[in-house]
Amino acid sequence: MSGDCDFGLIGLAVMGENLALNVESRGYKVAVYNRTTSKVDDLMEGRAKGKNFVGTHTIEEFVKSVKRPRKLMMLVKAGPAVDALIEQLLPHCEPGDIIIDGGNEYYLHTERRVKEVEAAGLLYVGCGVSGGEEGALKGPSLMPGGSAEAWPHIKEMFQSIAAKVGPNDDIPCCEWLGAGGAGNYVKMVHNGIEYGDMQLICEAYQLLHELGGLTNDELYDVFEAWNAGELQSYLIEITRDIFSVKDEQGDGHLVDKILDVAGAKGTGKWMSQLALDLGVPSTLVTTAVFARGLSAQKEARVRASETLNGPSAASNPEMQAIAKSLVGDRAEFVEAVRQALYASKIVSYAQGFVQLQAASAEHGWGLDYGAAALLWRGGCIIRAQFLDRIKEAFDKDANLENLLLDEYFEKAVENAQEKWRKVVAVASIMGIPVPAFSTALCYYDGYRMARLPANLLQAQRDYFGAHTYQRTDQDGTFHTEWIQLRKEPKA
Ligand code: 2AM
After folding, report:
1. Could you tell me the distance, in angstroms and rounded to a whole number, from the CA of residue 49 to the centre of ligand 1?
2. Which of 21, 253, 293, 475 has a CA positioned 20 to 30 A from the CA of residue 92?
3. Domain 187-448: top CATH class
4. Do β-strands 7-10 and 30-33 pair in parallel, antiparallel, or remain unpaired?
5. Could you give the residue numbers annotated as active site?
6. Is 416 in the pocket of ligand 1 (CB under 6 A)?
7. Which of the 8 DSSP states describes residue 168?
């Protein structure tokens, strides 16, 4: 037996409730269920009153109220709760039904569940959902992956509820990404890129505020101007807004009263750990995670600030003159920081896509990189115009090895690099930490070197551990008795 609902949603916390309302608003009939069933009644009596919803109180009733093949989406706590729910759903489902997880799930759990659910004759989708509560209601960015057979069944509905972009606001931020845990992985990389973007903006802020002497009102104007150009993005826009908010409990701006200790929920850490496992240098996200870690050591930093001295540059007219000669007057400095931010951001996205490629190759997902760029274009936290360019780059070459090699980005970094280098140099001279600006620059310089000093590193490894090495002029594996051949030390 099956009912006449087009879609079922389990988990009526704010995200789930908003997503259900979004689906219903597009003309679909929606069944809802929640473990604590009073939430179902609250919704039915409240925001869903008079709308096309069916409230259910048991899993069986929930499943039976949806048309086959059923589209049943869970928005519950990630981890064991999802496994427990799948187990409860399966006995009531029928072959071909589709179970969708919209939680922020670790991708390997989804890899496993796709296999388990497919073995039971059903289909499984792990779908990243980004855009917070408002996005869920009005149009999130959706990142689905898993059983490919499920896509034709959910495509129309998912694309209808997703954020829309493009000149006519008709391109949905939702495309099929690939097999297994591809959707969750893309969502994780989205979050990791968000870590990098935020850290880069914070470094720009510190430079402009502490070195440039810009006030919050001036920072507002700078971010407003930046948001009208290449850097246009949601994060630049909200940063602009933050500089306008006054403290309701006292004088001045609220941003100056906020404790400088960063929180984190862990997706940046996941991406960093997985980058280490894959052996790909995603240095922006790792640096951003470590920068948050250092910020959290507030008491230790306060103690150290009383003992450890920075460069004398801050009070040395000669050094200040050098700094000024590098970056010019205030307006030139602001522009140099903008260019450093833009170039670093390009490197950050390049690294994110390299990691996606490595993960896709390892798991055989056949990930669609242009689709990933497209669906980050709207609805989500890293939404930015710039992603159109990334989509174009992957449309031109689906297997683009590195975004930096695309002509548009190659030129963009080339144009920005002089100012970018000067900003990193000045920050170093003046003792202002710019870990993300500088790690991005080091990646750029390392990546464009045909020869790195790893020849010496291999010699060291072979010297102390007989780890062997390869030669540039002959095939094979070599080992040298370095001690026998070395020059005798004097003493
Ligand atoms: P609850 O209202 O009964 O707590 C976010 O926590 C959402 O996940 C809530 O809707 C919550 O239901 C649901 N949730 C958390 N753990 C769950 C579990 N083990 N089984 C079913 N739903 C769960």
Report:
1. 22
2. 21
3. mainly alpha
4. parallel
5. 187, 194
6. no
7. T
pLDDT tens column, 261-271: 999 989 999 99
Angstrom distance (rounded) from CA 107 to CA 182? 7
Is the pTM value of this prediction over 0.90?
Answer: yes
DSSP E strands: which ranges in 244-359?
none
Does the beta carbon of 76 lie inside 6 Å of ligand 1?
yes
What are the residue boundaries of the structural domains of the chain, listed by start?
7-176, 187-448
Using CA atoms, how far apart are residues 314 and 445, in angstroms rounded to an integer? 28
pLDDT at residue 314, rounded to an integer: 67
Q: Would you say 193 and 285 are in contact if contact means Cβ atoms under 8 Å apart?
A: yes
Can you list the residues of the chain whose pLDDT is less than 50? none
Q: Which of 182, 185, 191 has the alpha carbon at shortest distance from 289? A: 191
The pLDDT value given to residue 312: 76
Find the 86 Cα to ligand 1 centroid distance in Å.
13
Q: Which two tokens stand for residue 350?
A: 């390049």
In this structure, which residue's CA is closest to atom 20 in ligand 1? 81
Write down the CATH number for the domain with range 7-176: 3.40.50.720
